[in-house]
Automatic annotation (TrEMBL):
It comes from Aromatoleum toluvorans. Residues 1-19 form the signal peptide. This is Cytochrome C. The keyword Amino-acid biosynthesis does not apply. It comes from the Bacteria. The lineage of its organism: Bacteria, Pseudomonadati, Pseudomonadota, Betaproteobacteria, Rhodocyclales. The keyword NADP does not apply. SUPFAM superfamilies: Cytochrome c.
Length: 103
């Protein structure tokens, strides 16, 4: 690739990134904190579930149960305290929108 075509490609990518839905980007950024444990390439089967493609309502319910202390947890009950209800809903929606086939 020549210098000019590389620059043009970078400008195009920057424009596409800027045009992305800010809510989707925000949700993806919030969910990024969860992917070290809940990523498609996380070891399985184990106690840490893969979340991609699961229904958002089910993910959100579990997150709310962790926060309420009604679901058993090692660290999740502490982690979810750092998020608002809106942020938890965005995280759940982001994981639900991901392809389970990537798992």
């Amino acid at each position: 690739m020549t210098g000019k075509s590389t620059l043009a490609a970078l400008c195009l990518l920057a424009g596409l990134a800027h045009a992305a839905d800010p809510a989707a980007v925000h949700a993806r950024n919030l969910a990024a904190n969860c992917t070290s444990c809940h990523a498609p390439d996380a070891p399985a089967p184990n106690a840490i579930p893969r979340l991609a493609g699961r229904p958002a309502a089910a993910i959100l319910q579990k997150l709310q149960e962790f926060r309420a202390g009604t679901a058993p947890a090692t660290v999740m009950h502490q982690i979810v305290r750092g998020y608002s209800d809106e942020q938890l809903a965005l995280i759940a929606a982001d994981f639900a929108s991901r392809s389970a086939a990537a798992d």
